[in-house]
Write a structure and sequence with these properties.
366 residues, alpha/beta, DNA polymerase, domain 1, Rossmann fold, Arc Repressor Mutant, subunit A, 9-stranded mixed beta sheet, 3-stranded antiparallel beta sheet, 12 strands, 43% helix
Length: 366
Protein backbone atom coordinates (compact mmCIF):
# COMPACT_ATOMS: atom_id res chain seq x y z
CA UNK A 1 0.00 0.00 0.00
CA UNK A 2 1.36 3.42 -0.92
CA UNK A 3 2.50 5.17 2.26
CA UNK A 4 1.23 8.61 1.27
CA UNK A 5 -2.29 7.29 0.57
CA UNK A 6 -2.28 5.62 3.96
CA UNK A 7 -1.17 8.87 5.57
CA UNK A 8 -3.84 10.86 3.72
CA UNK A 9 -6.62 8.59 4.97
CA UNK A 10 -5.14 8.51 8.48
CA UNK A 11 -5.09 12.30 8.56
CA UNK A 12 -8.73 12.55 7.47
CA UNK A 13 -9.82 10.03 10.12
CA UNK A 14 -8.48 12.17 12.97
CA UNK A 15 -11.36 13.76 14.94
CA UNK A 16 -11.26 17.51 14.41
CA UNK A 17 -9.56 17.31 11.01
CA UNK A 18 -12.34 18.23 8.60
CA UNK A 19 -12.04 18.73 4.87
CA UNK A 20 -10.91 22.35 5.07
CA UNK A 21 -8.26 21.74 7.74
CA UNK A 22 -7.13 18.64 5.86
CA UNK A 23 -6.53 20.66 2.67
CA UNK A 24 -4.92 23.49 4.63
CA UNK A 25 -2.46 21.05 6.23
CA UNK A 26 -1.48 19.52 2.90
CA UNK A 27 -1.04 22.95 1.31
CA UNK A 28 0.98 24.21 4.28
CA UNK A 29 3.16 21.18 5.02
CA UNK A 30 3.36 19.60 1.56
CA UNK A 31 2.21 16.03 2.24
CA UNK A 32 0.28 13.98 4.77
CA UNK A 33 3.35 11.89 5.55
CA UNK A 34 5.23 15.05 6.50
CA UNK A 35 2.35 16.18 8.75
CA UNK A 36 2.79 13.01 10.83
CA UNK A 37 6.52 13.66 11.19
CA UNK A 38 6.04 17.07 12.81
CA UNK A 39 6.40 17.39 16.60
CA UNK A 40 3.30 18.39 18.54
CA UNK A 41 4.77 21.81 19.31
CA UNK A 42 5.11 22.58 15.59
CA UNK A 43 1.65 21.24 14.82
CA UNK A 44 0.00 23.49 17.39
CA UNK A 45 1.41 26.56 15.64
CA UNK A 46 -0.83 25.73 12.66
CA UNK A 47 -4.21 27.45 12.72
CA UNK A 48 -6.99 25.03 13.59
CA UNK A 49 -4.87 22.52 15.52
CA UNK A 50 -5.08 22.38 19.28
CA UNK A 51 -3.46 20.05 21.83
CA UNK A 52 -6.05 17.27 21.35
CA UNK A 53 -5.67 17.16 17.56
CA UNK A 54 -1.87 17.38 17.79
CA UNK A 55 -1.88 14.44 20.22
CA UNK A 56 -4.05 12.40 17.85
CA UNK A 57 -1.64 13.08 14.98
CA UNK A 58 1.22 11.72 17.07
CA UNK A 59 -0.76 8.63 18.12
CA UNK A 60 0.34 5.42 16.35
CA UNK A 61 -3.25 4.11 16.49
CA UNK A 62 -4.19 6.68 13.88
CA UNK A 63 -2.28 4.75 11.20
CA UNK A 64 -3.66 1.45 12.49
CA UNK A 65 -7.20 2.69 11.93
CA UNK A 66 -6.34 3.80 8.39
CA UNK A 67 -4.86 0.36 7.64
CA UNK A 68 -8.03 -1.21 9.04
CA UNK A 69 -10.17 0.94 6.73
CA UNK A 70 -8.16 -0.10 3.66
CA UNK A 71 -8.47 -3.76 4.72
CA UNK A 72 -12.23 -3.46 5.14
CA UNK A 73 -12.49 -1.72 1.78
CA UNK A 74 -10.66 -4.60 0.11
CA UNK A 75 -12.88 -7.15 1.83
CA UNK A 76 -16.03 -5.25 0.79
CA UNK A 77 -15.02 -4.57 -2.85
CA UNK A 78 -14.93 -0.86 -2.05
CA UNK A 79 -12.63 1.73 -3.58
CA UNK A 80 -11.20 4.52 -1.44
CA UNK A 81 -10.86 7.64 -3.57
CA UNK A 82 -8.83 10.56 -2.20
CA UNK A 83 -9.15 14.07 -3.59
CA UNK A 84 -5.63 13.98 -5.02
CA UNK A 85 -6.38 10.81 -7.04
CA UNK A 86 -6.68 11.22 -10.85
CA UNK A 87 -10.03 9.40 -10.70
CA UNK A 88 -11.53 11.84 -8.18
CA UNK A 89 -14.87 13.17 -9.57
CA UNK A 90 -14.22 16.34 -11.54
CA UNK A 91 -17.57 17.90 -10.64
CA UNK A 92 -16.56 17.74 -6.97
CA UNK A 93 -12.94 18.77 -7.46
CA UNK A 94 -13.87 22.40 -8.20
CA UNK A 95 -15.80 22.86 -4.93
CA UNK A 96 -14.23 24.34 -1.81
CA UNK A 97 -16.24 22.08 0.51
CA UNK A 98 -15.71 18.87 -1.47
CA UNK A 99 -15.10 15.71 0.58
CA UNK A 100 -11.44 14.78 0.71
CA UNK A 101 -12.12 11.04 0.90
CA UNK A 102 -14.86 8.98 -0.78
CA UNK A 103 -15.71 5.32 -0.28
CA UNK A 104 -17.15 3.99 -3.54
CA UNK A 105 -18.73 0.60 -4.18
CA UNK A 106 -20.26 -0.70 -7.39
CA UNK A 107 -20.02 -0.26 -11.12
CA UNK A 108 -20.16 3.50 -11.30
CA UNK A 109 -18.67 6.27 -13.46
CA UNK A 110 -18.66 9.47 -11.45
CA UNK A 111 -17.41 11.41 -14.47
CA UNK A 112 -20.33 10.38 -16.68
CA UNK A 113 -21.26 13.05 -19.24
CA UNK A 114 -24.72 13.59 -17.73
CA UNK A 115 -25.60 13.25 -14.05
CA UNK A 116 -28.97 14.26 -12.58
CA UNK A 117 -30.04 14.20 -8.93
CA UNK A 118 -33.65 13.43 -8.02
CA UNK A 119 -34.78 14.09 -4.43
CA UNK A 120 -37.91 14.74 -2.45
CA UNK A 121 -39.93 14.04 0.65
CA UNK A 122 -39.83 10.78 2.57
CA UNK A 123 -43.65 10.96 2.71
CA UNK A 124 -44.18 10.72 -1.03
CA UNK A 125 -47.71 10.46 -2.38
CA UNK A 126 -48.83 8.32 -5.30
CA UNK A 127 -48.67 11.50 -7.39
CA UNK A 128 -45.03 12.09 -6.45
CA UNK A 129 -44.00 8.49 -7.02
CA UNK A 130 -45.75 8.48 -10.39
CA UNK A 131 -44.01 11.70 -11.44
CA UNK A 132 -40.68 10.23 -10.41
CA UNK A 133 -41.22 7.11 -12.48
CA UNK A 134 -42.36 9.06 -15.56
CA UNK A 135 -39.33 11.37 -15.25
CA UNK A 136 -36.92 8.43 -15.08
CA UNK A 137 -38.60 6.75 -18.07
CA UNK A 138 -38.29 9.98 -20.03
CA UNK A 139 -34.61 10.34 -19.14
CA UNK A 140 -33.74 6.83 -20.34
CA UNK A 141 -32.93 7.76 -23.98
CA UNK A 142 -30.45 10.40 -22.78
CA UNK A 143 -28.53 7.89 -20.64
CA UNK A 144 -27.72 10.00 -17.55
CA UNK A 145 -26.63 8.65 -14.20
CA UNK A 146 -29.33 9.37 -11.60
CA UNK A 147 -28.27 10.20 -8.04
CA UNK A 148 -30.39 10.17 -4.89
CA UNK A 149 -30.10 9.38 -1.20
CA UNK A 150 -31.70 5.91 -0.72
CA UNK A 151 -34.22 7.43 1.71
CA UNK A 152 -37.90 6.52 1.91
CA UNK A 153 -40.27 8.21 -0.52
CA UNK A 154 -39.02 9.97 -3.66
CA UNK A 155 -35.38 8.85 -3.25
CA UNK A 156 -36.05 5.12 -3.24
CA UNK A 157 -38.65 5.50 -6.02
CA UNK A 158 -35.98 7.15 -8.19
CA UNK A 159 -33.57 4.25 -7.57
CA UNK A 160 -36.25 1.60 -8.18
CA UNK A 161 -37.41 3.24 -11.40
CA UNK A 162 -33.82 3.41 -12.67
CA UNK A 163 -33.37 -0.30 -12.01
CA UNK A 164 -36.64 -1.00 -13.80
CA UNK A 165 -35.82 0.98 -16.98
CA UNK A 166 -32.08 0.20 -17.00
CA UNK A 167 -30.48 3.51 -16.01
CA UNK A 168 -27.41 3.57 -13.74
CA UNK A 169 -28.23 4.99 -10.33
CA UNK A 170 -26.07 6.05 -7.38
CA UNK A 171 -27.02 6.38 -3.72
CA UNK A 172 -25.06 8.78 -1.53
CA UNK A 173 -25.16 7.46 2.03
CA UNK A 174 -25.10 9.24 5.36
CA UNK A 175 -23.35 6.24 6.93
CA UNK A 176 -20.50 3.86 6.20
CA UNK A 177 -20.71 1.61 3.13
CA UNK A 178 -21.25 -1.30 5.52
CA UNK A 179 -24.35 0.29 7.07
CA UNK A 180 -27.30 0.57 4.70
CA UNK A 181 -29.93 2.95 6.06
CA UNK A 182 -32.79 2.39 6.12
CA UNK A 183 -32.28 -1.35 6.39
CA UNK A 184 -35.48 -1.93 4.38
CA UNK A 185 -33.61 -0.70 1.28
CA UNK A 186 -30.70 -3.13 1.61
CA UNK A 187 -31.90 -5.36 -1.27
CA UNK A 188 -32.30 -2.36 -3.56
CA UNK A 189 -28.82 -1.13 -2.64
CA UNK A 190 -27.42 -4.56 -3.50
CA UNK A 191 -29.10 -4.54 -6.92
CA UNK A 192 -27.69 -1.08 -7.63
CA UNK A 193 -24.12 -2.35 -7.40
CA UNK A 194 -24.29 -3.88 -10.88
CA UNK A 195 -25.80 -0.76 -12.47
CA UNK A 196 -24.56 2.17 -10.42
CA UNK A 197 -23.38 2.02 -6.85
CA UNK A 198 -23.02 3.48 -3.39
CA UNK A 199 -20.92 6.44 -2.24
CA UNK A 200 -20.15 7.91 1.16
CA UNK A 201 -17.53 10.02 2.86
CA UNK A 202 -18.12 8.23 6.16
CA UNK A 203 -15.63 5.46 7.06
CA UNK A 204 -16.54 1.84 7.72
CA UNK A 205 -18.35 1.43 11.02
CA UNK A 206 -20.10 4.83 10.84
CA UNK A 207 -23.79 4.80 11.67
CA UNK A 208 -26.52 6.98 10.14
CA UNK A 209 -25.97 9.85 12.58
CA UNK A 210 -28.22 12.87 12.06
CA UNK A 211 -25.36 15.30 11.36
CA UNK A 212 -24.12 13.13 8.47
CA UNK A 213 -27.15 13.82 6.29
CA UNK A 214 -26.79 17.58 5.63
CA UNK A 215 -23.16 16.86 4.72
CA UNK A 216 -24.32 13.98 2.52
CA UNK A 217 -26.60 16.38 0.64
CA UNK A 218 -23.66 18.49 -0.56
CA UNK A 219 -22.19 15.39 -2.23
CA UNK A 220 -25.49 14.73 -4.04
CA UNK A 221 -25.44 18.34 -5.25
CA UNK A 222 -21.73 18.39 -6.01
CA UNK A 223 -21.82 15.29 -8.20
CA UNK A 224 -24.78 16.51 -10.30
CA UNK A 225 -25.33 18.82 -13.25
CA UNK A 226 -28.97 19.34 -12.33
CA UNK A 227 -31.26 18.68 -9.36
CA UNK A 228 -34.96 17.79 -9.69
CA UNK A 229 -37.15 18.17 -6.58
CA UNK A 230 -40.36 16.12 -6.65
CA UNK A 231 -42.57 16.78 -3.61
CA UNK A 232 -40.93 18.44 -0.61
CA UNK A 233 -42.26 19.89 2.62
CA UNK A 234 -41.47 23.37 3.90
CA UNK A 235 -38.36 21.98 5.59
CA UNK A 236 -36.15 18.99 4.99
CA UNK A 237 -33.21 17.53 3.14
CA UNK A 238 -34.56 18.22 -0.35
CA UNK A 239 -34.63 21.97 0.29
CA UNK A 240 -31.17 21.84 1.87
CA UNK A 241 -29.87 20.08 -1.24
CA UNK A 242 -31.54 22.68 -3.48
CA UNK A 243 -29.94 25.49 -1.49
CA UNK A 244 -26.51 23.88 -1.81
CA UNK A 245 -27.05 23.30 -5.53
CA UNK A 246 -27.85 26.98 -6.01
CA UNK A 247 -24.70 27.94 -4.11
CA UNK A 248 -22.76 25.87 -6.67
CA UNK A 249 -24.48 27.81 -9.50
CA UNK A 250 -26.02 24.63 -10.88
CA UNK A 251 -29.53 24.07 -12.19
CA UNK A 252 -32.43 23.30 -9.85
CA UNK A 253 -35.87 22.22 -11.10
CA UNK A 254 -39.10 21.49 -9.26
CA UNK A 255 -42.45 19.95 -10.13
CA UNK A 256 -45.56 21.77 -8.87
CA UNK A 257 -48.21 19.92 -6.90
CA UNK A 258 -51.53 20.48 -5.22
CA UNK A 259 -51.91 23.66 -3.19
CA UNK A 260 -53.58 21.53 -0.53
CA UNK A 261 -50.73 19.04 -0.24
CA UNK A 262 -48.15 20.05 2.42
CA UNK A 263 -45.60 17.84 0.66
CA UNK A 264 -45.63 20.17 -2.35
CA UNK A 265 -45.16 23.34 -0.28
CA UNK A 266 -41.37 23.13 -0.53
CA UNK A 267 -41.48 22.84 -4.33
CA UNK A 268 -43.82 25.83 -4.56
CA UNK A 269 -41.51 27.86 -2.32
CA UNK A 270 -38.49 27.04 -4.50
CA UNK A 271 -40.39 28.07 -7.63
CA UNK A 272 -41.88 31.28 -6.16
CA UNK A 273 -38.52 32.40 -4.74
CA UNK A 274 -36.76 31.70 -8.06
CA UNK A 275 -34.58 29.05 -6.47
CA UNK A 276 -35.90 26.44 -8.91
CA UNK A 277 -37.29 26.44 -12.43
CA UNK A 278 -40.79 25.05 -12.80
CA UNK A 279 -41.06 21.94 -14.95
CA UNK A 280 -44.09 19.82 -15.78
CA UNK A 281 -42.35 17.01 -17.66
CA UNK A 282 -39.06 15.61 -18.86
CA UNK A 283 -39.25 17.72 -22.03
CA UNK A 284 -38.93 20.89 -19.94
CA UNK A 285 -35.88 19.51 -18.16
CA UNK A 286 -34.17 18.43 -21.40
CA UNK A 287 -34.92 21.79 -23.00
CA UNK A 288 -33.42 23.77 -20.13
CA UNK A 289 -30.30 21.58 -20.09
CA UNK A 290 -29.90 21.81 -23.88
CA UNK A 291 -29.28 18.10 -24.22
CA UNK A 292 -29.06 16.77 -27.76
CA UNK A 293 -31.98 14.70 -29.02
CA UNK A 294 -31.38 11.01 -28.41
CA UNK A 295 -30.12 9.15 -31.45
CA UNK A 296 -30.57 5.57 -32.53
CA UNK A 297 -28.08 3.35 -30.73
CA UNK A 298 -25.86 1.45 -33.13
CA UNK A 299 -24.35 -1.85 -32.02
CA UNK A 300 -20.71 -1.18 -31.25
CA UNK A 301 -18.23 -3.01 -33.49
CA UNK A 302 -15.89 -3.07 -30.51
CA UNK A 303 -17.75 -5.31 -28.11
CA UNK A 304 -14.69 -7.33 -27.14
CA UNK A 305 -12.52 -6.36 -24.18
CA UNK A 306 -9.27 -4.69 -25.18
CA UNK A 307 -6.10 -6.01 -23.59
CA UNK A 308 -5.04 -2.49 -22.63
CA UNK A 309 -7.28 -1.12 -19.82
CA UNK A 310 -6.60 2.49 -20.88
CA UNK A 311 -7.66 1.71 -24.46
CA UNK A 312 -10.68 -0.10 -23.02
CA UNK A 313 -11.83 2.99 -21.11
CA UNK A 314 -11.50 5.09 -24.28
CA UNK A 315 -13.58 2.66 -26.32
CA UNK A 316 -16.19 2.52 -23.57
CA UNK A 317 -16.65 6.29 -23.88
CA UNK A 318 -17.97 5.85 -27.42
CA UNK A 319 -21.60 4.77 -27.03
CA UNK A 320 -22.61 5.75 -30.57
CA UNK A 321 -20.98 6.45 -33.91
CA UNK A 322 -20.67 10.05 -32.85
CA UNK A 323 -17.49 12.14 -33.18
CA UNK A 324 -15.73 13.14 -29.99
CA UNK A 325 -12.86 15.54 -29.43
CA UNK A 326 -9.81 14.86 -27.32
CA UNK A 327 -11.29 17.22 -24.71
CA UNK A 328 -14.51 15.16 -24.63
CA UNK A 329 -12.55 11.93 -24.20
CA UNK A 330 -10.30 13.35 -21.50
CA UNK A 331 -13.40 14.54 -19.61
CA UNK A 332 -15.09 11.15 -19.87
CA UNK A 333 -12.09 8.93 -19.17
CA UNK A 334 -10.06 11.06 -16.76
CA UNK A 335 -6.83 9.95 -18.47
CA UNK A 336 -3.76 12.25 -18.59
CA UNK A 337 -3.37 13.90 -21.99
CA UNK A 338 -0.14 12.08 -22.89
CA UNK A 339 -1.67 8.68 -22.04
CA UNK A 340 -4.85 9.51 -23.93
CA UNK A 341 -2.95 10.68 -27.04
CA UNK A 342 -0.78 7.55 -27.20
CA UNK A 343 -3.77 5.22 -26.82
CA UNK A 344 -5.76 7.11 -29.46
CA UNK A 345 -2.91 6.61 -31.91
CA UNK A 346 -2.75 2.94 -30.96
CA UNK A 347 -6.51 2.48 -31.54
CA UNK A 348 -6.30 4.35 -34.84
CA UNK A 349 -3.51 2.05 -36.04
CA UNK A 350 -5.56 -0.98 -34.98
CA UNK A 351 -8.45 0.27 -37.09
CA UNK A 352 -10.80 0.70 -34.14
CA UNK A 353 -10.98 4.51 -34.38
CA UNK A 354 -10.96 6.98 -37.27
CA UNK A 355 -9.23 10.35 -36.80
CA UNK A 356 -11.25 13.37 -37.93
CA UNK A 357 -10.28 17.00 -38.64
CA UNK A 358 -10.09 19.24 -35.58
CA UNK A 359 -8.75 16.64 -33.11
CA UNK A 360 -11.91 14.56 -33.46
CA UNK A 361 -12.32 10.79 -33.34
CA UNK A 362 -15.05 8.36 -34.28
CA UNK A 363 -15.59 4.62 -33.90
CA UNK A 364 -14.63 2.74 -37.01
CA UNK A 365 -17.67 1.26 -38.74
CA UNK A 366 -15.56 -1.33 -40.51
Amino acid sequence: MEQERLALLALRLIPGVGDKLFKHLIETIGSASEVFRLPASRLMRIEGIGPRTAKAVRNAKTFQEAENQFLKAEQNQTRICIYSDPSYPRRLSTLSDAPTVLFIKGNVNLNQKRIVAVVGTRRATAYGKGLTHELIKGLKPYEPVVISGLAYGIDIQAHLSCLQVGLPTIAVLGSGIDTIYPNAHRNTAQKMLSCGGLITEEPFGSGPDAHHFPARNRIIAGLSDALVVIEAGEKGGALITADIMNSYNRDVFAFPGSLFNPWSAGCHHLIKSHQAQLITGVEDLIGHLNWDSPKVEYPSPISQTHADPYANSILAAFTRFKPMTIDDLQYLTGLPLNTLSSRLLQLELEGKLNALPGNGYQLSKG
